[in-house]
Write a structure and sequence with these properties.
- With about 180 residues, this protein is an all-alpha fold.
- The chain has two domains: about 40 residues; about 120 residues, Up-down Bundle (Four Helix Bundle (Hemerythrin (Met), subunit A)), CATH 1.20.120.
- The protein has five helices and two strands.
- Strands 1-2 form a two-stranded antiparallel ribbon.
- Strand 1 and strand 2 form a beta hairpin.
- The longest helix is centred in the first third of the chain and has 38 residues.
- The protein starts with a helix and ends in a 26-residue tail after the last helix.
- About 20% of the residues are buried.
């Protein structure tokens, strides 16, 4: 019973960490922005500033990758409601990524994202609704393969995503051979 409780506590810690880190980063950015604005005199003319736009890599690491990982974990726990929730979050994060970066390498980035994620996300949704672990595993692998194909197409083949293994907090394969 103690071992089960320790494993459960460890899982909660990992899930909490995956949530707290991105939220902490966003909070730090908001606080830094609000402090710099508060320090400016109200009567001074506002200098022309450049609004911060996170890079594609920033958004992938902060929004896409954690959702990909949590989606897998939800299915492993057969928590189909949470898996459905994370699928929706993942779709939304991909949409916002495309809106933030409309082109990449002279290609419509939203169209590229849609072309590689639409079918696997539909299959994931169907598997989750059916509570089909086998169908989920195939659709998840297809989504992961699609992500890696997009990385290759954009010249970022060194970024290899995989199906998470065990209790790892990352779904990135840091042992992949260089392209």
């Amino acid at each position: 019973m103690t071992r089960v409780r320790a494993i459960s506590n460890r899982r909660r810690s990992i899930v909490l960490m995956l949530f707290v880190i991105p939220v902490s980063i966003l909070l730090a950015i908001v606080l830094a922005t609000s402090r710099s604005r508060a320090a400016e005199p109200a009567t001074a003319a506002a200098p022309q500033t450049t609004q911060y736009l996170p890079s594609i890599s920033d958004l992938m690491i902060a929004t896409i990758q954690p959702r990909h990982r949590r989606l897998w974990q939800a299915a492993q726990n057969r928590d189909w409601a949470f898996a459905a929730y994370e699928t929706g979050n993942l779709k939304g994060a991909f949409k916002r990524l495309g809106e933030a970066h409309p082109t990449e390498h002279d290609i419509s980035f939203p169209e590229m994202i849609s072309s590689v994620t639409e079918q696997p996300l539909k299959a994931l949704t169907a598997a989750i609704e059916a509570k089909d672990q086998t169908g989920f595993s195939k659709a998840y692998a297809d989504l992961t393969d699609s992500c890696n194909a997009c990385h290759q197409a954009l010249g970022h083949g060194v970024v290899v995503i995989r199906t998470p293994r065990g209790k790892s907090v990352s779904d990135q394969d840091f042992t992949a051979a260089t392209p």
